[in-house]
Design goal:
With about 400 residues, the chain is α/β, with parallel strands linked by helices. It contains 19 helices and 13 strands. Keywords: Transferase.
């Protein structure tokens, strides 16, 4: 492990001392490096001259800063290097020699052509953990094809399943095709970091976003193999659990999710149909699945006569798993979110105080250093070159004059 360039005055997190060189852009890669930054790693984001990460130009933009970039780059540093400039490759290799982890999400082969592939960097840093994130992985007939979130959803089966019965497939509201990179990538990296404590050696990690999204489909592949047929879209309902889904209220909608026999009895009492709990036609999960229309009609008949607030009160009292359907702002401002500090305010160099989503992982016995604002383009270039690579002012000035750094 390396020492942080700027020691924290408070606990940085469990990955304090781990340094990450981040060649990622847009969402899949930045989500992975964000997870490591949240855990306390020092993340050095390498951006190209000009506009930097593509998402810095994604509207809406306020005072030159994009909402998109702000959303997935908290806690990182930014250095601008022209990797195609004569000295740019050398600077990148010098940085890689001093880092524990490298993450990139270019198409397979791009980093090799730049001279920054795993084999080249392993020669100068045998302990480097190199995580390559791509749409389809580093092998296979589709490895060179471009991939974006909706494409990945289509290739993984997720888009097919996200529809009402008989309806047109719809893209998931969350960009899970990309965000899965922020799950699979960090898991692979953390495993390799642990392995390195025993072997001293790094490793190349090949992350396929499509395979990651297939992995998140949970029980659906096994359901297909068990039944011999493709699972069919169920909308907000569950293929095997009833009642489970969105039900109408007099002023909106509410979610009810009945997973066990115990909850089934609670649902029956809550909808003022206690006799259904003892009805032999609905005694098992399979029977309730087969009686989906009758049961859903009974639940809807009750919920449609009451407001969401009334239903929340009643279902809470009778321990029925449920939830009102919150908008994004309602979720951020809910009492639970406020109690947990889901939203934090940080000071941004250009925007001043701004709200950000807080780290999703907390440590009960330790308070982590506050989240820092996403960096402005090249904000840390001089400090990284001076503090980490030991370059003096004249050398930095010459690199800037040549257009190698900015």
């Amino acid at each position: 492990m390396t020492e942080p360039s700027t020691p924290a005055t408070t606990w940085a997190g469990p990955l304090a001392g781990v340094r990450v060189l981040d060649f990622t852009r847009v969402l899949a890669g930045p989500a992975a490096s964000l997870a490591l930054a949240d855990l306390g790693a020092e993340v050095i984001k390498v951006e190209p001259p000009g506009s930097g990460d593509d998402t810095r130009t994604f509207p809406p933009i306020r005072d030159g800063e994009s909402h998109y970039f702000l959303s997935v780059n908290r806690g990182k540093k930014s250095i601008v290097i022209d990797l195609k400039a004569p000295d740019g490759l050398g600077l990148a290799m010098d940085l890689a020699a001093k880092c524990d982890v490298l993450i990139e999400n270019y198409r397979p082969g791009v980093m090799d052509r730049l001279g920054l592939g795993y084999d080249a960097l392993k020669a100068i840093n045998p302990g480097l953990i190199y995580c390559a994130i791509s749409g389809y992985g580093m092998t296979g007939p589709m490895r060179d094809m471009p991939s974006f979130d909706i494409v990945l959803q289509a290739q993984s089966g997720a888009l097919y399943m996200n529809a009402e019965p008989g309806g047109q497939p719809m893209k998931l509201g969350l960009p899970m095709g990309d965000l899965v990179g922020g799950i699979s990538g960090p898991i692979g990296i953390l495993g390799a970091l642990f392995e390195r404590t025993r072997t001293g050696k790094g490793r190349l990690i090949d992350v396929s976003l499509t395979e990651g999204l297939i992995g998140l489909s949970a029980y659906l592949p096994q359901l297909a193999w068990f039944t011999g047929a493709d699972p069919q879209p169920q909308g907000s309902q569950h293929p095997n659990l009833v009642p489970y889904g969105v039900f109408p209220a007099s002023d909106g909608s509410i979610v009810v999710a009945c997973l066990t026999a115990g909850f089934w009895g609670n649902v029956c009492r809550a909808i003022e149909r206690p006799e259904l709990a003892d009805d032999p036609r609905f005694a098992t999960l399979s029977q309730r699945r087969d009686a989906r229309e009758e049961i859903n009609a009974a639940v809807s008949a009750f919920t449609s006569r009451h407001t969401v607030a009334e239903l929340v009160t009643r279902f809470t009292q009778l321990e029925v798993p449920h939830a009102p359907i919150l908008s994004v702002l309602e979720a951020l401002n809910s009492p639970q979110s406020k109690a947990r500090g889901v939203v934090v305010e940080v000071d941004h160099p250009a925007l001043g105080p701004i709200p950000l989503v807080n780290r999703p992982i907390r440590y009960a016995d330790e308070e982590q250093a506050p989240v820092t604002a996403p960096p402005m383009l090249g904000q840390d270039t001089d400090a990284i070159l001076a503090d980490l690579l030991g370059l003096d002012e004249d050398r930095i000035a010459a690199l800037r004059a040549a257009g190698t750094v900015a």
